[in-house]
Recover the amino acids of this structure.
């Protein structure tokens, strides 16, 4: 059964309990994932942290090839709204098997729902929040939050802004909006992409009436045209 990341780090002696508590407090104040707060506090190195994420989630860590985002087919079959809302980034499609990387904690029930919706078998991996969000941003567009962008710069994955030095550590950020509930409720003004959109259209479209049915009244007799009398 998956284990809490904070408890695992303390039990294994990977991070002192006081540092874990500081990271948990930072997460409560600023939001985001616990691994983001741990990296901001410099409580543990990213390479070591990834191993604990995999153990806590009971999922494999994302391979290095996942972060390149080179498989355009994986992007096309996975709705951007689902990726952004739930912290899921697709990175490879082979036949009907879609590989993706998720932020911790991983909602296995949600993955089952997405698998059913897309008629694809999902192979899930886990990774640090900033890397998952950075991959989503490269796949679908958008902007990385200042906190996660600071971690990208600190890791060397992104250059620092022009005229600015790499930050020592990101400070608390405004609390993000509360996460959406699991499922696929969405703003109807923002359409889903390929497979999801096709399913949504098929379910929402009214059944057309035949010309013959439309020409008959409730008793099955031919309808008579209504003629408005002249004024």
């Amino acid at each position: 059964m998956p284990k809490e990341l904070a408890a695992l780090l303390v039990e294994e002696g990977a991070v002192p309990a006081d540092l874990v508590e500081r990271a948990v407090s930072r997460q409560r104040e600023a939001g985001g994932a616990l691994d983001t707060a741990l990296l901001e506090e410099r409580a543990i190195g990213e390479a070591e942290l990834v191993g604990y994420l995999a153990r806590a989630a009971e999922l494999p860590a994302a391979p290095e090839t996942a972060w390149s985002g080179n498989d355009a087919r994986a992007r096309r079959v996975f709705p951007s709204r689902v990726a952004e809302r739930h912290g899921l980034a697709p990175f490879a499609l082979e036949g009907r098997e879609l590989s993706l990387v998720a932020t911790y904690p991983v909602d296995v029930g949600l993955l089952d729902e997405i698998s059913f919706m897309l008629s694809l078998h999902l192979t899930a991996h886990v990774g640090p929040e900033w890397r998952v969000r950075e991959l989503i941003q490269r796949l679908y567009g958008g902007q990385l939050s200042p906190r996660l962008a600071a971690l990208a710069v600190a890791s060397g994955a992104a250059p620092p802004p022009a005229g600015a030095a790499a930050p020592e550590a990101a400070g608390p950020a405004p609390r993000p909006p509360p996460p959406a509930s699991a499922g696929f409720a969405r703003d109807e003004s923002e359409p889903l992409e390929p497979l999801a959109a096709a399913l949504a259209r098929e379910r929402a479209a009214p059944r057309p009436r035949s010309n013959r049915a439309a020409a008959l009244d409730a008793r099955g007799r031919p309808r008579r045209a209504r003629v408005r009398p002249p004024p």
Observations:
- The first helix runs from residue 5 to 11.
- The domain at 5-158 is CATH 3.30.300.160 (GMP Synthetase; Chain A, domain 3).
- The beta strands are 88-94, 97-102, 121-126.
